[in-house]
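Need residues for this backbone.
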């Protein structure tokens, strides 16, 4: 039998292990109407408990101007990606379709590339024209250790923010956000209103 090794295999820290065990014990449950579990080959959407609130944040647009990242009474899909990430290349078109076709959803794609100048040419090559794209090369709104509002457990990673600003969960890895399963999940989060009230 052939042994398969993965590049992402690394020991889990005690903190992450305890957090995962606490999450299991808390019984993260989907809101009613969430439909089939949404995910990809390796991961399923993970519900966060307790739900954290989205603080007031600013993002930089590709033209250098800033924009506020805030709940507008709609579900937000906040996606973190990079030009060097093959799975991100595959996922961005689905996010653009979701933004164009789904009512009541705001998609926010945040590039974590250290050089923001590589982002616009990359998007042109992919044919991405309507997706709202921002850059955060310094990790102002994301972190790898939980100190910022969004933690990057892998790449790409997408968070769902409920209409009341509660960060309700995330999915790591490439996913078809334009699929029926994704739309059911988003609709369930929208119908629940969000956060703690939906549990």
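Answer:
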């Amino acid at each position: 039998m052939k042994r398969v090794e993965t590049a992402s295999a690394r020991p889990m820290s005690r903190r992450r292990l305890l957090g995962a065990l606490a999450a299991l014990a808390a019984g993260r449950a989907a809101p009613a109407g969430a439909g089939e579990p949404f995910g990809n080959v390796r991961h399923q959407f993970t519900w966060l408990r307790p739900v954290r609130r989205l603080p007031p944040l600013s993002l930089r647009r590709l033209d250098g101007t800033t924009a506020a990242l805030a709940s507008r009474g709609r579900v937000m899909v906040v996606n973190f990606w990079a030009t060097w990430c093959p799975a991100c290349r595959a996922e961005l078109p689905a996010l653009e379709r979701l933004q164009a076709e789904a009512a009541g959803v705001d998609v926010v794609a945040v590039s974590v590339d250290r050089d923001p100048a590589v982002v616009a040419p990359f998007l042109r090559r992919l044919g991405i024209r309507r997706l709202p794209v921002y850059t955060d090369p310094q990790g102002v709104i994301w972190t790898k250790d939980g100190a910022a509002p969004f933690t990057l457990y892998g790449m790409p990673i997408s968070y769902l923010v409920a209409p009341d600003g509660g960060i309700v969960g995330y999915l790591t890895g490439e996913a078809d956000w334009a699929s029926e399963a994704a739309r059911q999940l988003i609709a369930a989060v929208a119908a629940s209103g969000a956060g703690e009230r939906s549990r």
